[in-house]
Amino acid sequence: MDRRRFLTGAALGGATIVGASALGALDADAAFAGTRSTLDPGVIESVFAEGRIGAIKGSTLHVAGSWGETHIVQLTNATSVWKLRETSPTEIEIGDGMYGRGVRMPDGTIAADAVWVNIVHLECTLKGIGRDRIELAHDNHRVVGRLVPGTTVASYNGGALTGDLSRLAIGQAVRVLGAWRPSDDAVDVARLTVAV
User: Fold this and answer.
1) Per-chain mean pLDDT for the chain
2) Does domain 119-194 have CATH number 2.40.50.140?
3) Strand, coil or helix: what is 11?
4) Under a CB-based contact definition with an 8 Å cutoff, are residues 111 and 76 in contact?
5) Would you list the domain boundaries of the chain?
6) pLDDT class for 30, splitting at 50, 70, 90?
7) What are phi and psi of 96, to 5 degrees?
8) Regarding the domain with residue range 3-117, which homologous superfamily does it belong to in the CATH classification?
9) In which element (H, E) is residue 6 found?
10) CA-only gyration radius of the chain, Å
């Protein structure tokens, strides 16, 4: 069965499948990959949508794009959802920002195989370190990074991910992968990549 027919069936209430996607990786880094050729010969190119969620109606997200466009994103039983970590569609809220990848359906909706909610990937300088937060500078803006027990990890010099944040130091350049918090404009930190 080709991916388009599978997602159409899932969008209309069909299959429940969990696993890898023919459209690409499902991890948080894949949110920044944009459109690309797919691994499925039945689908020429994946569709990528982004914007702010204005309404949630059943399993569809009504999204206002950054350039004035609108997207209707259909979640299926096979849609992977990331919001700081892998989660369920019930965690998605009106006002959240999102990136989504999927297949365009004949009616113009996007049957999503992956949705990343409030995801940010920032190049920053570490300005302060607290017990449950870090202070960051990004493009001359102050950003509060909230450290989330059991979730926040770091990689030093390309090494393995670790929950040990003791090697963080003020002045370091860090890449932050996390989830923006619309309520207070802070970022819940999933991963810090540090060149020591």
Assistant:
1) 83
2) yes
3) helix
4) yes
5) 3-117, 119-194
6) low
7) -65, 150
8) Nucleic acid-binding proteins (2.40.50.140)
9) helix 3-11
10) 18
3-state helix/strand/coil string of 87-141:
ECHHHCCCCCEEEEEEEECCCCCEEEEEEEECEEEEEEEEEEECCCEEEEEECCE
Percent of the chain with pLDDT strictly greater than 90: 72
pLDDT band at residue 110 using 50, 70 and 90 as cut-offs: very high
C-alpha distance across the termini of the chain, in Å:
48
Find where tokens 């450290």 sit. Answer: 147
Of 55, 47, 50, give the one whose Cα is nearest residue 110: 47
Q: Are 144 and 133 in contact (CB under 8 A)?
A: yes
122-128 long-range contacts, Cβ below 8 Å, gap at least 24? 122/175, 122/176, 122/178, 122/187, 123/173, 123/175, 124/173, 124/174, 124/175, 124/176, 125/171, 125/172, 125/173, 125/174, 126/168, 126/169, 126/170, 126/171, 126/172, 126/173, 126/174, 127/170, 128/170
Cα–chain center distance at 80: 10
Hey, what are 39's tokens?
A: 């691994």
The amino acid sitting at 172 is: Q
